[in-house]
Recover the amino acids of this structure.
C-alpha cells in the first residue's frame, strides 16, 4: 500500500467502476439473446453498492490533500444517485428487452454515468470535478442516442453533444480563470485565497462562466433550450435519469464550488442566482402549459423544479442546503415515478401524446394513480412529499428576507397545478379510446412504482426522519446560517 | 536540460535549413515553363471527376479512436517502465489493472467489429 | 581509430572556443556551435548514405529478381544515384492548379524536419551522441510520429484522389503500428530502467537485449517496417494501385525531399533497432562507430531483403495483423517481462 493513500475511502467508486466493467465483460461473453438479463444483475449490483454506502455514515475525510472529499454531503448524494439508478434500471428493463442490440452496454453506461456523478459530488478539486462531469456527460451522450434507428433520438444525441460540449467549454474557461487568479485548483484553498482580496473583473468573468456552465447542466433558463428536445428524443428511462440524477449531481457540484469556494463574493453571485431562479421558475412553468407531449411537459416541469432548487442556494444557509437535499430526494421519487408511468404506457401504446392518456384510469388504474400522486407531488400539494420539500425551500429563503421570492415561487406553483391537473383530467375524466384493452405492466416496474408511491405519501405525512438527516448533513457541510 | 533542448532547436533549424536551401538551389537551376496541361491533376491521363475532398470511409476514424486510447496508455506506461525495477509489486499489479481495463476495451472493440475492415 | 571522430570533434571544439573568445561571445555559444557542427555532419552522413542506399536498394532488388539493375552510369552503375540527384535538381517543379498551394509546399519541408531531428539522440559510437537527452527514446517516438502529419498534409494538399487515398492509408497504418512499436520498446526500457540512449547502451554491456526480448525484437521489426511504409506494408505508395500515394503530384526537388526522408527514416529506425536490441555501438576489436555502422547496415539489408521477398498485403490483413495479433502479443510481452524481472531481481 502506498503511504498516505487510503484506498478504502474509495470503496464505493471502485465497486461502481468494477460493476460497470463487469457488465461490459458479461455482455461480451453472454450470447445475444440472453443479454437483457444483465439488467437484473445491474439492479443487484447497485443495491449492493447502496448497502456499502451505509458504512460511510458520518465519515468525513479527504483523499490526497483535498482532491477528493468523502463527507456526509457527498455520501448523501451518492445514495441518491444509486437509488435513482436502481429505479431507472428497473424502468428501462422493458425498453432494453425490445431494443435487440447492445443490451449490456446500456446498463454498463448507466453505471458509468452514475460513477461520473459520484466523482462529481465528491470532487474537492476543479480538475477532478471536470473529470466526473465529463464521465457523466459522455455516458449520457451515448445513452441519449441509444435508439440509433430513431431519428428523434439521434437528433437529441447530436444536440446534447454540441450544446454540452459548448457548456463544458464555458465551464472549463471559467475554471481556468479561477485557477489563474488563485493559483490553486483545490476548492477550500480557493476560498482561503479569495477571503482577503476584493472582486477582480477577471474573477467576475470566471464566476459568470461557471454559472453559465453549470446552468447548462442543471438546465436553468436561459441555458435550458437543449432540455425539452433532448428529453423528448432520449429513451424515456434515460430522460428520467437525466432529469433527476444528472441535475442533482451538477447542482451538488455547483453548491460545493460556490458555497465552499466563493463565499467571499456571495453578494455578487447570489444576485445572479436569484435572477436565474426567477427566470427558470416563471418560464419553465408558463411554457409547460401549452405542451401536448407528456415528455416535453415533464421536461419543462423539471426545468421549473430546478428553479425551486436554486432557492436553497439563494438562502445561503445550512437550512437552504438541507432543503435542497430533502427536495432532491423527493424529486427523485416523484419524477422517476412519473417517468415510469410514461415508460409503462409507451411500451404498450408507443405514444407520448397527452391525449393518448385519456381514460387511463379505466385501462390501468395503478398507472393512473401513480401518475396522479406524482404530478400532485410535483405541483407541491399537501399532504404529499413535494409540498414538504417546497415548504423547506420557501422557509429557507423567507428566513433571509426574500419574501417576494417565496411569494413568486408559490404563485408559480399554482400555475403548475393547472397544467398538471390538465393531465389528470385527461386520465380520469375522458373516455378511453375505442378498442383499447387493459395495459399490462411488468412486475418489476409495478413494484418500483408502488415503492415510489408509498414514499411520496409517507414522506409527505411524516417527513421528520429524512428532514432530520438532510438538516444534519447540511449542517456538517455548511455550518453557517448568516 | 534547457541547453539540451536548445540543441534540439538547432537540429530543427538544420532540418528546415536543409529543406529550404535545397528547394532554393532547385529554384535557381530548374526550368520554369508551366502550362495548363502540366498543372492539371494527374489521374493517369484522364480528366478528374468530382471533388476529392469528400466524406471519407469511417473505418479510418474508428482506428484513430482506438489509437488515441492506446497512445494515452503509452504515456502512462513509459514512466512506469522506467522506474519499474525500483517500484514495489503493488505498482506492477496496479498497472496491470489499468492495462486490464484497456484490454477489456480492446476486447469490446474487437467483438463489436470495429477492427474489421468492411 | 576508436576515437577518430571524437578527436576531430575535439579539434573543432578548440577552434570554436578560440573563435568565441575572439568574437567575445558568451561561453554557452561554443556548445551550440558544436551542436550545429554535429548536426551538419550528421546531415551529410545521412545524405551520403541515402544516396548509397538508393543504389543498394535498386541493385539488391534487381539481383533478387534476377535482373541486372542500374549498370550504365559508372562501373556497375555505381554513379547512377548521383546522376539521379542532378536530374531531380534540374526538374521543373509543378504545383497542380487544384492543389492547396501552401499545404502542398509546406508538407515537403515538414517531412524532412522530424527526420533530421531524430538523429540528435542516436549513438553513432562510444560518446558520440549529439544530444544525450534523458528522455532519448521517448523523444524518438514523439518526433518520428509527427511525420504522419506531413504525409497527411501532402495527400490532402495535392487534391488528387490517389494522394488522398494514400495519405489516409499512411495515417491509419502509421498510427496503428505505433502502438506495438512503442510497446515493444517498453520491454527494453523496463530492463534498462532509463530512457537515455547512453544508459540503454551501457545496460547491454554484458548481453544484447535481443536475447532477453526476442519477441519484442520481432514485434519491433514488423512494426518498424510498417512505420517506414516499406514492403510488405507499402500500401500507402503501392505503385500498381495508387501511383505513389501522397507523392503522386510532387516533382523535382520536392519529390526528392520525400524520397530522402524515406531513406533517412530507414537509417534512423535501423539505428534505433541496433541501439535497443543489438547492443548499440559496443563490440570487440573494431572501433565502436564501425560496429554501429555494421549493425545498422545489417538491419537495413534485412529490411530490404524483406521488402523484395514478401508481396504487399491487403489493408484488412494489415489492420488485423496489428490490432488482433501484434498489440495483444506486445501486451503479453510486457507482462511476461515484468513478472520475470520481478522474480529475477528479487522483491
Amino acid at each position: 500500500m502506498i503511504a498516505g493513500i487510503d484506498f478504502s475511502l474509495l470503496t464505493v467508486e471502485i465497486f461502481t467502476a468494477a460493476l460497470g466493467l463487469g457488465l461490459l465483460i458479461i455482455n461480451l461473453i453472454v450470447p445475444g439473446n440472453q443479454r437483457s438479463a444483465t439488467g437484473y444483475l445491474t439492479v443487484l449490483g447497485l443495491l449492493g453498492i447502496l448497502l456499502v454506502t451505509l458504512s460511510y455514515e458520518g465519515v468525513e475525510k479527504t483523499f490526497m490533500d483535498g482532491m477528493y472529499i468523502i463527507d456526509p454531503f457527498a455520501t448523501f448524494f451518492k445514495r441518491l444517485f444509486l437509488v435513482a439508478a436502481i429505479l431507472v434500471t428497473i424502468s428501462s428493463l422493458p425498453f432494453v428487452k425490445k431494443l435487440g442490440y447492445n443490451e449490456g452496454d446500456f446498463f454498463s453506461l448507466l453505471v458509468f454515468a452514475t460513477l461520473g456523478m459520484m466523482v462529481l459530488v465528491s470532487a474537492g478539486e476543479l480538475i477532478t470535478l471536470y473529470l466526473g462531469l465529463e464521465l457523466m456527460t459522455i455516458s449520457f451522450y451515448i445513452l441519449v442516442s441509444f435508439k440509433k434507428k430513431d431519428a428523434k433520438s439521434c437528433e437529441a444525441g447530436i444536440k446534447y453533444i454540441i450544446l454540452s460540449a459548448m457548456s463544458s467549454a464555458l465551464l472549463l474557461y471559467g475554471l481556468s480563470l479561477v485557477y489563474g487568479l488563485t493559483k490553486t485548483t483545490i476548492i477550500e484553498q480557493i476560498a482561503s485565497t479569495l477571503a482577503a482580496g476584493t472582486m477582480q473583473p477577471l474573477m467576475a468573468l470566471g464566476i459568470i462562466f461557471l454559472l453559465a456552465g453549470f446552468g447548462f447542466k442543471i438546465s436553468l433558463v436561459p441555458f435550458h433550450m437543449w432540455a425539452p428536445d433532448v428529453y423528448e428524443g432520449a429513451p424515456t428511462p434515460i430522460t428520467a435519469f437525466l432529469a433527476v440524477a444528472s441535475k442533482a449531481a451538477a447542482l451538488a457540484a455547483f453548491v460545493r464550488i460556490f458555497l465552499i469556494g466563493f463565499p467571499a463574493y456571495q453578494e455578487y453571485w447570489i444576485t445572479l442566482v436569484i435572477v436565474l431562479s426567477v427566470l427558470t421558475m416563471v418560464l419553465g412553468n408558463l411554457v409547460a402549459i401549452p405542451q401536448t407531449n407528456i415528455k416535453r411537459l415533464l421536461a419543462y416541469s423539471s426545468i421549473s423544479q430546478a428553479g425551486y432548487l436554486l432557492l436553497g442556494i439563494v438562502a445561503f444557509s445550512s437550512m437552504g442546503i438541507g432543503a435542497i437535499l430533502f427536495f432532491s430526494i423527493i424529486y427523485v421519487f416523484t419524477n422517476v415515478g412519473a417517468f415510469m408511468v410514461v415508460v409503462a404506457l409507451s411500451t404498450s401504446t408507443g405514444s407520448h401524446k397527452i391525449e393518448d392518456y385519456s381514460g387511463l384510469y379505466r385501462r390501468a388504474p395503478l398507472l393512473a394513480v401513480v401518475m396522479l400522486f406524482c404530478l400532485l407531488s410535483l405541483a407541491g400539494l399537501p399532504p404529499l412529499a413535494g409540498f414538504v420539500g417546497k415548504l423547506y425551500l420557501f422557509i429557507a429563503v423567507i428566513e433571509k428576507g426574500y419574501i417576494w421570492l417565496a411569494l413568486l415561487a408559490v404563485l408559480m406553483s399554482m400555475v403548475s397545478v393547472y397544467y398538471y391537473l390538465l393531465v389528470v383530467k385527461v386520465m380520469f375524466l375522458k373516455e378511453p379510446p375505442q378498442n383499447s384493452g387493459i395495459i399490462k405492466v411488468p412486475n418489476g416496474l409495478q413494484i418500483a412504482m408502488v415503492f415510489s408511491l408509498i414514499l411520496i405519501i409517507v414522506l409527505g405525512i411524516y417527513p421528520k426522519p429524512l428532514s432530520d438527516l438532510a438538516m444534519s448533513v447540511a449542517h456538517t457541510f455548511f455550518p453557517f446560517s448568516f | 536540460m534547457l541547453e539540451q533542448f536548445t540543441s534540439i532547436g538547432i537540429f530543427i533549424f538544420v532540418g528546415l535549413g536543409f529543406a529550404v536551401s535545397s528547394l532554393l538551389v532547385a529554384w535557381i537551376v530548374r526550368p520554369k515553363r508551366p502550362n495548363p496541361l502540366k498543372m492539371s491533376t494527374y489521374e493517369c491521363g484522364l480528366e478528374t471527376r468530382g471533388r476529392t475532398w469528400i466524406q471519407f470511409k469511417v473505418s479510418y476514424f474508428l482506428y484513430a479512436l482506438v489509437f488515441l486510447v492506446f497512445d494515452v496508455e503509452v504515456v502512462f506506461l513509459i514512466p512506469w517502465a522506467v522506474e519499474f525495477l525500483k517500484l514495489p509489486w503493488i505498482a506492477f499489479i496496479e498497472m496491470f489493472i489499468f492495462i486490464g481495463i484497456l484490454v477489456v476495451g480492446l476486447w469490446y472493440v474487437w467483438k463489436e467489429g470495429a477492427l474489421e475492415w468492411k | 581509430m576508436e576515437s577518430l571522430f571524437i578527436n576531430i570533434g575535439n579539434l573543432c571544439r578548440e577552434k570554436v572556443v578560440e573563435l568565441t573568445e575572439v568574437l567575445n561571445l558568451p561561453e554557452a555559444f561554443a556548445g551550440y556551435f558544436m551542436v550545429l557542427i554535429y548536426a551538419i555532419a550528421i546531415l551529410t552522413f545521412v545524405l551520403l548514405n541515402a544516396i548509397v542506399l538508393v543504389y543498394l536498394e535498386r541493385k539488391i532488388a534487381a539481383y533478387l529478381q534476377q535482373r541486372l539493375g542500374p549498370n550504365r552510369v559508372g562501373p556497375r552503375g555505381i554513379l547512377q544515384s548521383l546522376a539521379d540527384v542532378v536530374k531531380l535538381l534540374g526538374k521543373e517543379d509543378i504545383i497542380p492548379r487544384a492543389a492547396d498551394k501552401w499545404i502542398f509546399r509546406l508538407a515537403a519541408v515538414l517531412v524532412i524536419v522530424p527526420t533530421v531531428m531524430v538523429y540528435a539522440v542516436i549513438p553513432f559510437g562510444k560518446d558520440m551522441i549529439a544530444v544525450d537527452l534523458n528522455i532519448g527514446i521517448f523523444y524518438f517516438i514523439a518526433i518520428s510520429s509527427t511525420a504522419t502529419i506531413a504525409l497527411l498534409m501532402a495527400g490532402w494538399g495535392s487534391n488528387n484522389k490517389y494522394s488522398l487515398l494514400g495519405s489516409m492509408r499512411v495515417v491509419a497504418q502509421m498510427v496503428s503500428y505505433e502502438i506495438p512499436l512503442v510497446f515493444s520498446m517498453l520491454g527494453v526500457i523496463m530492463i534498462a530502467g532509463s530512457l537515455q540512449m547512453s544508459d540503454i547502451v551501457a545496460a547491454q554491456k554484458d548481453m544484447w537485449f535481443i536475447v532477453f526480448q526476442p519477441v519484442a525484437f520481432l514485434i519491433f521489426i514488423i512494426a518498424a517496417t510498417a512505420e517506414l511504409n516499406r514492403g510488405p506494408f507499402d500500401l500507402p505508395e503501392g505503385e500498381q494501385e495508387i501511383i505513389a500515394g501522397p507523392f503522386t503530384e510532387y516533382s523535382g526537388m520536392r519529390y526528392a525531399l520525400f524520397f530522402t526522408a524515406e531513406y533517412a527514416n530507414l537509417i534512423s529506425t535501423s539505428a534505433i533497432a541496433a541501439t535497443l536490441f543489438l547492443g548499440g555501438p559496443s563490440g570487440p576489436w573494431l572501433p565502436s562507430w564501425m560496429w554501429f555502422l555494421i549493425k545498422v547496415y545489417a538491419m537495413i539489408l534485412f529490411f530490404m531483403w524483406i521488402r523484395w521477398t514478401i508481396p504487399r498485403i491487403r489493408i484488412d490483413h494489415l489492420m488485423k495483423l496489428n490490432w488482433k495479433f501484434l498489440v495483444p502479443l506486445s501486451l503479453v510481452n510486457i507482462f511476461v517481462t515484468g513478472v520475470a524481472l520481478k522474480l529475477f531481481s528479487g522483491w
Q: What stands out?
A: Chain C has one domain: 99-344. Chains C and A do not touch (no CB pair under 8 Å). Residues 28-64 of chain C form the longest helix (37 residues).
